[in-house]
Please model this.
Amino acid sequence: MTHQPTVLVIGGGTAGNGLAVLLRTAGIAVDLVEAKADWNAYGSGITLQGNALRVLREIGVWQEVCAQGYSTDGVSITTPAGHVVFTQQDVHTGGDDLPATLGMQRPALQNILIAAVRASGTSVRLGCTVEKLAQDATGVDVTFTDSTSGRYDLVVAADGVSSSTRDAIGIPDRPVPTGMAIWRTPAPRPEGVTRTHLAYGGTAFIAGFCPTSDTTLYAYLVEANRDRAAIDPASYADEMRSLARGYSGFWDEIRDTITDPAQVNYTWFDRHLVEGAWHRGRVVLVGDAAHACPPTIAQGAAMSLEDASVLAELLSSHDVWDDALLTAYRDRRMPRVRRVVDASVQIGQWQLDGVRDADVPGLMGRTMAVLKELP
Model:
């Protein structure tokens, strides 16, 4: 290009924040707009596998993530009563020099990424998003909801699974419910919880918890989805606590701490994968805007971060940003993302169908072996 390239990132979540930092590191000018005035710095917990940690190291925040998270090396499968049946070692998908898995509080991760975006020199506007896009062969004219406007060489939609940008540029793919839903909440970490515990069966399909720091964890229960409109948010803590009564062991201590409905999140599982092009002209999708899946193999954040890494690599190493380059980005990501989406959905479907001899360990092992390779 004959001028410094400019990129607008729509959405300040994991993918958008990570991409902004990587592009600024490459000397590309970046504006980021985030619809939420608080920059979406809330949530319960998040599980980051090695391939996610590899990108966070590339972004330059690994030391902060390591300090604020809780590294683990495996998953203990338990009975509903809390008895450990076996412990499976996690695959080091990010390489042997990174933990296999790290749990952390989602607000902690978001605040680390926010600080990195600020430090990168990215221009940030909160409580603001895109009202109108108009593009031609050389750029995109953008009108914002605060009545300002700008012109960019590229617009990146990192605005989540319900992306309004995806709708605006005419990509028809939409998320589809899988039939499952999850209750999640942060909680104090009982002494002795040093890795993720998962119980299959009981009053829910899955009952699990993952340490997120020396003092905290997040707990979750997966059930068949219900009509969300029929559940009073004021009853969320009661609902989750009731479902958790089918589990013992560490759950006895965790359950008693589930008292604040505002801390409990109830979300349906969706399957989402844009099958065609991930771009229209000079507007391209990353992260959940392009693909999303149930957290059954804990790869959602990793796939979004990998999108950011690959797109930043391609944009920073090519002078011409055209259809061929954006197609190359999608083609490079699609096989890996499809494998993760299909595996995540399949594990849930086996549970919905009551398949007792499903090869969950085998499917997870084959998937993780692929994810050890660089994206």
Notes: The radius of gyration is 21 Å. The chain is about 35% helix and 30% strand. The mean pLDDT is 96. The longest strand covers residues 176-188.
